[in-house]
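Quick review question:
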């Protein structure tokens, strides 16, 4: 459940303490009402976990970390979001859209950390980001011209997470959107150390040989996405169904490209919420 408000849950618990009416006559004079129980954030989180069966961490830590050095000696920083606690937590390599590592992606990293994942949001643009489609296209094109560099970057991100004492080294996944969705798929297809990979409207090839793939894939696609045809998605889904594993592909009606990005004009709240729930369930099952 994304961004469940803990204060609302505290009020819910307090309300649950009101007793049901009885058949006894109610006296004219009554005592002062019982003061509702006030919970600390830690207690509220514990109650939330017990009530829903889902983890939610009230405290997370974030920092910019150097996780990779390019062949030319450039240090690459990512955004690390960690749940507070000893762990070990499953890790997620998070891959940005073609806009780059921006505040929207950092917010998503915090959302996943609140669900109990150690998240490293990578930077495939080496510190640059875009605010216009032309800028984004140029940056994404530069990555396509240097795929070896991108794979080295993502390998370094996986290694960085695995080196953290609070991360379960054998429970690493990836999540990406659009440009990042394609690279999340590439991590799975090339067995870059992920057990589970989530791709939001990322490109793929229906002709890819996935017979040796060890990663479980979850795909989210919009039915009205003009850049990724729905017939191709259906073929991709059929291909995955021939493989062993816990793969799943969902097509969302009335949704186009970038339907899960709250800052996009294409945002579809209902589809985004459903995709979020499915993603959390998938990661819980496979990491």
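Suggested answer, residue by residue:
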């Amino acid at each position: 459940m994304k961004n469940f408000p803990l204060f609302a849950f505290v009020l819910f618990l307090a309300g649950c303490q009101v007793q049901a009416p009885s058949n006894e006559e109610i006296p004219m004079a009554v005592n002062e009402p019982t003061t509702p129980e006030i919970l600390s954030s830690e207690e509220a989180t514990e109650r939330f976990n017990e009530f829903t069966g889902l983890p939610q961490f009230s405290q997370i830590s974030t920092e910019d970390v150097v996780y990779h050095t390019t062949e030319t000696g450039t240090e690459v920083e990512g955004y690390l979001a960690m749940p507070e606690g000893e762990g070990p937590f499953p890790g997620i390599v998070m891959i940005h859209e073609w806009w780059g590592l921006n505040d929207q992606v950092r917010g998503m990293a915090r959302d996943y950390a609140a669900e109990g994942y150690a998240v490293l949001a990578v930077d495939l643009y080496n510190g640059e980001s875009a605010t216009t489609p032309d800028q984004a296209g140029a940056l994404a094109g530069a990555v396509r011209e240097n795929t070896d560099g991108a794979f080295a970057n993502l390998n370094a991100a996986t290694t960085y997470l695995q080196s953290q004492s609070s991360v379960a080294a054998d429970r690493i996944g990836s999540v990406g959107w659009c440009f990042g969705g394609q690279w999340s798929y590439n991590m799975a297809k090339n067995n870059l150390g992920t057990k589970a990979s989530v791709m939001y409207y990322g490109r793929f090839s229906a002709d890819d040989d996935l017979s040796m793939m060890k990663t479980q894939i979850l795909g989210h696609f919009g039915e009205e996405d003009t850049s990724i045809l729905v017939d191709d998605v259906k073929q991709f889904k059929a291909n995955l169904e021939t493989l062993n594993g816990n793969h799943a592909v969902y097509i969302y009606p009335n949704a186009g490209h970038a339907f899960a990005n709250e800052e996009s004009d294409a945002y579809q709240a209902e589809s985004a919420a459903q995709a979020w729930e499915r993603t959390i369930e998938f990661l819980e099952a496979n990491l």
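Why it works: The chain has eight helices and eight strands. Residues 3-36 have pLDDT under 50 and may be disordered.
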